[in-house]
User: Fold NAD(P)-binding protein from Coccomyxa subellipsoidea.
Amino acid sequence: MALRTLAKGIMDHATSQRTPESLKVLRRSFAGKNEPPVYVVFGAAGAVGSDLVGRLVAQPGATVFASDRDTSALDNLKDAHVVPADTLDHEAVAGVIAKAAEQHGRVDGVASCVGSMLIKPAHLTSTDEFMDLVRMNALSAFHILKGSVGPMMSSGGGSIVLCSSSIAHRGTANHEALAAAKGAVSSLALSAASTYSPHNIRVNVCVPGVIEAKMTEKLTESSDARDASERMIALGRLGMPGDVGRALEFLLHPNNAYITGTFLHVDGGLGSMAPARAGDSKTVKQN
Assistant:
């Protein structure tokens, strides 16, 4: 009886959040809007972010606001509205999203391609190094989420996509600080997906593996280092920025408006399986 009463209370609360008028707004959902989409991409100057911006501006009629603290690299982004901002500054992040919302009446999708990495065991990682990772990854994601939900609640919903890492979903030696920071991003998104679902706001996570980019140069600077990285991956190769860009576009796109609270792993199997190799006893034979 107590459980039944509790369940009824939760349902009543959820229903109270959706008045008849707000239900009309939600029925005019992101998937049903006739207007071209409005997107904001943070970390737009990086390999993945710039790839995503290119894909989004190619959508018919789409408007894309591209933001990064690296202002010099932003000049290379074509057909996007460039708005510099440091994601460690909440007011700056909120200002970018607010600018898009003020100019177009809404923001349909926001993506975070912000991140940093560190490969060190815990006993060699300083507190400052740990906190820098947490700030750049988890705090940036929090600022982007916090700045997005207000405008989206006012306009009938939208999509938010954060980037975590396969390191946060499997035990990997010498990645304790990075795993903690990226794990915080994953947990943040999952909780937010629940919190803001009554407002038709979808929150999902892209989970990349090892991607060819400036950030991962140390993993590919020698043939031995590259080989070691590739041998960890079931598909036997590193990912490309476009692999992640396509996944982010998929999660942002209005056609996929029934997906929320999901982790889309783009890691070649790194986070979920042990690789089989030609000649291994467990490798499936062709004949």
User: Anything to note?
Assistant: Residues 18-32 have pLDDT under 50 and may be disordered. The chain has one domain: 35-265.
